[in-house]
Structures are given as structure tokens and as C-alpha cells.
Amino acid sequence: MPQLRHPLPRFLLLCAATPAEALKGEWGWAAWKERYGRTYDAAEDAAREAVFAANERGAAAQSAANPRATYGPGPFAALTTSEFAAERLRPYRIGAPAAGTGSATAPVPPPPASIDWRARGAVTPVVDQGQLGSPWAYPVADTVAAQWFLRGHPLQTLSYDQLAQCANVSARLGTPAEAFAYVKRAGLETAAYFASHPSCTPQGPEAHIKGFRTLARNESAMLDWLIRTGPFVVGVDASHWQIYTGGVLKGCSGRGIDHYALVVGGGADYWLLKNSWGPEWGEEGYVRVAFGDDECGIAELATGAWA
User: Fold this and answer.
1) At what angle do helices 29-36 and 42-65 cross, to 10 degrees?
2) What's the pTM?
3) How does pLDDT run across 196-247, given as a tens digit for each residue?
4) pLDDT value for 202
5) Would you say 26 and 52 are in contact if contact means Cβ atoms under 8 Å apart?
6) Are strands 286-290 and 244-249 parallel, antiparallel or unpaired?
7) Strand runs (DSSP E) across 125-284, as ranges?
């Protein structure tokens, strides 16, 4: 197993508020625009301020309903819910998931009760997907990067663009298994290399996987996979994540999958997910979701891989 690179799990580090995190909780229109570098003409400024005020009221309601989580003026606080959904979410109509291939070995038995793979150096930095219509590409590439790292290779950011351009995943019906099948067949380049040498059939790809599997819809089994094998991809209902700033989400509906994220940590209390909306969102780009009740539909479509 790779040597620990960080003395403390970031589960603990996130508990201490920083000045930047404190600012996230202040619903001031001028301060928010300055923080995120937003400028509008007079008419749009008034309209956006009204949306901002409506989201402030929504944050109060969400906080009352979910006291373990915090909601505030993050980077999407001036978007309506429909604008946010159009920009960041993609509804998926998921059919029967692919079963995957091969069999995985267990690199870390016996398992502890919880884990944070960031503390073991297996998680790449948070990035912002922007309005890219392939949100599954980010956790799939990050899963491959983690697995390649756990087999003794340097941790590197792998190419999201290669997956989006080459994996031939259906925009509405696809699953991460289709992307993993491509990686198993072709391999995955680093983001930097693919940017200058784009090819869907790379000659010497940086990372490979041996197999992948759709996980059982059982959170205890998913946690066992996380601890024994490493980070994995989940489909989620992220419609309630727009103004999330921290804490543990509960009462999050699972009406349908509209986003994908990477599970990097978890235990008996909550899951820790790496998102792809940039480090200004949530807990430095991460979100915690309550464990055990299929919150946000987290157990509906989970997919793991191994190298």
C-alpha cells in the first residue's frame, strides 16, 4: 500500500472555519459580487440581486429543514434553480446497469470503520467542469487515477476531455460503466498530454484498469468497497446542492440521477464526495451526505474499478 502523505484526515481539517468559509455565510450582494468577480449592467444587476435574495430565503428554509448542513452564497447564488439545473445538471434515464468485468482483489484488509482517501494521497485536486455536458467524466477519470496510484504509480490528473470525446457515452442513457469499458480497452492519458496529443487510441496511455463493476445498492457493501478497493463513482440527485456550503446533507431527495461525483471517504455517519464544481463550492469542492438512507440517491448507481 502507498505510504500516508498527510498526518491528519481532512475530515478533521474541514471542521475548522477559515475566513473564506466564514464569508460564504454572509448574504451581502456587493460582497458576493466582489468575491466572485461578477459585474452586470444596471438592469441585470437588479434582476440578479432579486434572485440572490430569493436564494437567501431558500437557504434559510433549507437550513431549518436540515440543521446538520449549511447553505449560503456560494458561486451559484445568483442563478435561479432552473438556470442552475441547465448549467450544471444533466438528467439521466438509467436502465439496467452494466455488470462490469473481471474480479477485484482487496488491497487493504482488514478494513477500518471509516476512511478518507485524500489522507492517503489518492485524490487529485478539485476542478471546475464548467458547463461541460459530461459530468461523469470527472469521477471516472479520478477513479482511474486513484487506482493507478494505489498500484504504485505517481498520482496525476487524467484527461477528462479524452473521456468526453472518445468514450462514446450516451448523453442521456449512458452510465459510467461505458466510460470504464473504454478505459479498459484504450487506457487514459494525463490531462496535459491529451491536450497536446489528442487521440482516442493512444499509443502509450498513462493509466489502465483491469476491470470495473456496478456495485450493489447497499450502502454497507459500498462502504466495504470504498475501504478495501478505493474511491468510486456515484450517480446522485444534486438538485439541492446549489447553495450548499457545508455540513452533512440529509433529506436530500433521490428523484433521479442528474449528476455524478466521486466517493473518496465515508463511515457510519456520512459519505464524503468530491464534486467537480470548483473549490469555491461546498466544503472546498466536497460535499458530505448522510449515510444509510440512500440520501440524494447515492446508492442507485455506484460503479467501481480496479487496476
Assistant:
1) 100
2) 0.85
3) 999 998 877 789 999 999 999 999 999 999 999 999 999 999 999 999 999 9
4) 85
5) no
6) parallel
7) 211-214, 232-236, 244-249, 259-266, 270-274
CB atoms within 10 A of CB 115: 23
Residue 131 pLDDT exceeds 80? no
CA angle 133-91-295, nearest 5°?
Answer: 115
By CB neighbour count within 10 A (0-12 exposed, 13-18 middle, 19+ buried), where does 149 fall? buried
SS3 226: helix
- How many C-beta atoms lie closer than 10 Å to residue 83's C-beta? 13
Q: Pick 273 or 168 by higher pLDDT.
A: 273
Grid coordinates of 60: 434559510
Instruction: Extract long-range pairs of 91-95: CB within 8 Å, 24+ residues apart.
Output: 91/172, 91/256, 91/257, 91/258, 92/172, 92/173, 92/174, 92/175, 92/235, 92/256, 92/257, 92/258, 93/172, 93/173, 94/173, 94/175, 94/235, 94/257, 94/300, 94/301, 95/173
Q: Domain 10-306 carries which CATH code?
A: 3.90.70.10
Instruction: State how far the Cα of 245 lies from the Cα of 261, in Å rounded to an integer.
Output: 16
Residues pairing with 286 in the sheet: 274, 283
Q: In sequence order, which ranges of the chain are alpha helices (DSSP H)? A: 10-13, 19-24, 29-36, 42-65, 81-88, 137-150, 160-166, 176-186, 191-196, 219-228
Sorted by where each begins, the domain ranges of the chain are 10-306
Q: Is the pLDDT of residue 165 over 70?
A: yes
Copy the grid coordinates of residue 281. 463550492
* Cα Rg of the chain, angstroms: 19
CA distance linking residue 110 with residue 118, whole number of Å: 19
Q: How confident is the model at residue 97 (pLDDT cuts 50, 70, 90)?
A: very low
Q: Beta strand pairing status for 259-266 and 270-274?
A: antiparallel
The three cell numbers locating residue 22: 466564514
